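If you are new to this repository, start here. Below is one unmodified record pulled from the training split, so you can see the exact layout before writing a loader.
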Amino acid sequence: MKALGVEGILVVDKPRGWTSRAVVDRVAALVGRSKAGHAGTLDPLASGVLVICVGPATRLVEEIQRLPKSYRTVVLLGARSDTLDADGRIEHQADPRVPSPAEVAAAVATLVGEVDQLPPDYSALRVGGRRAYDLARAGRAVELAPRRVRIDRIEVLRYEWPRLELEIDCGAGTYIRSIARDVGEALGCGGLVEVLVRTRIGPFALDGAVDLAGLTEGSLPGLLRPSVEAVAGRPRLALDPDQVAAVAAGRRILAGPLALTELPPGPLALVDSDGRLVALAELDAGGGWVQPRKVLVPQ
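And here is the target side for that same chain:
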């Protein structure tokens, strides 16, 4: 097999005011010919965990995007915004009613579980082949359908009118800006995101994130985390060198009797003798084969 270049996962603490694309461009400038891409956009207003995949690890972007996420946010009540956050055109409500703590708790509780959530008009979702935010900026009508999302937990950390601080655990595709809007509407006073911090994506937490300001070409390789961390929840199958070579060529391999008895059918992480992620694969228990789906090592 060919030697790998710079590859792995960089967990960045994205500064407020930066676009996710600008962070990726900064990293890409430091990794030479290796590719770089982010797994899960953060709005410019937001800060916190932004996972950057480098080199072959870019093939894991979709996997990481599907991981559960955690956020801390401050919702400004008594106001509405076209973007649902403080970066948009804000309209403060005249003499809004001030909800009680009990009313706030009740409104928040209605949003937990499997819910249909209407995405923001200012989002990257496509409408008729165009980004919703492009249509919204052009003053065009944006017609987005509600989407089913999973919100595992919303905890009220503090409520002092007009600010409501929340901690949220949720599944992929959930918009925190929509949660702020929906809480505000349920309370009859409006609401928007004033502060937003992503504290976790799957196993990647804010306390292990890298400060972008101190990132250099020399320091970056030592800060990259092994690609296998992105699939920590998947069953693993260790391969011998011949099997690694076969998988690198995209060929399926025999699972062997031990794998068939110990591993559940379905998605697998294939690793080499050093624990390095070789590929994502599918186990066909009936046929006794392991079929590579996404290969991370070159031939």
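Two things worth knowing about this chain: The chain has three domains: 8-67+203-229, 69-196, 234-295. The chain has a mean pLDDT of 90.
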